[in-house]
């Protein structure tokens, strides 16, 4: 199976010094790299007018992005076991969705 060629290491996020009570400025970094993986910034709720504030959505997005390498590794491991146990015969739609998600994460889609 193809490997992820992105930034290695455990990904985590933290608020940057630009964050305040109404705007989330999030840096996503790797434990093995000095380079920032991503930077997210929310729109103040007075501008966005969301029921769930843009701040909350930005934090939720940061959690998902930081978990991405772990999710990819877990899905690849599960799919390897699935083929050995013939899950593709019993759950073809789920296996296909898992394959598509992996392809998307690896830039093949």
Question: What tags apply to this protein structure?
Answer:
single chain, alpha+beta, 3 strands, 109 residues
Polypeptide structure, described:
The chain is elongated and about 50 Å long. The chain has helices at 45-48, 54-84, 87-90, 92-105, and strands spanning 11-15, 25-30, 36-41. The chain has one domain (11-105). 49% of the residues lie in helices and 16% in strands. A three-stranded antiparallel β-sheet has the order 1-2-3, covered by helices on one side. α2 (54-84) packs across α4. The relative contact order is 0.15. It has 109 residues and is α+β, with helices and mostly antiparallel strands. The protein contains four helices and three strands; from the N terminus they run βββαααα. The mean pLDDT is 86.
Topology:
Elements: E1 11-15, E2 25-30, E3 36-41, H1 45-48, H2 54-84, H3 87-90, H4 92-105
Antiparallel strand pairs: 1-2, 2-3
Sheet bearing the most strands, described? 3 strands, antiparallel
Strand coverage percent = 15-25%
Rg from alpha-carbon coordinates: 18 Å
Q: Uncertain runs with pLDDT below 50, 5 residues or more?
A: none
Strand neighbour order, sheet with most strands: 1-2-3
Task: Figure out the total of helices.
Answer: 4
Summary of the model, kept short:
The chain has 109 residues and is α+β, with helices and mostly antiparallel strands. It is built from 4 helices and 3 strands, in the order βββαααα. The two termini are 15 Å apart.
């Amino acid at each position: 199976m193809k490997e992820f060629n992105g930034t290695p290491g455990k990904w985590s996020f933290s608020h940057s010094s630009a964050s305040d009570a109404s705007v989330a400025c999030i840096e996503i970094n790797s434990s093995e790299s000095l380079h920032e993986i991503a930077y997210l910034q929310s729109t103040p709720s007075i501008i966005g007018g969301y029921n769930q504030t843009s701040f909350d959505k930005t934090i939720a997005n940061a959690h998902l992005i930081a978990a991405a390498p772990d999710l990819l590794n877990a899905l690849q491991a599960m799919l390897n076991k699935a083929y050995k146990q013939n899950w593709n015969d019993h759950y073809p739609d789920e296996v296909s969705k898992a394959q598509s998600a992996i392809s998307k994460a690896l830039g093949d889609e």
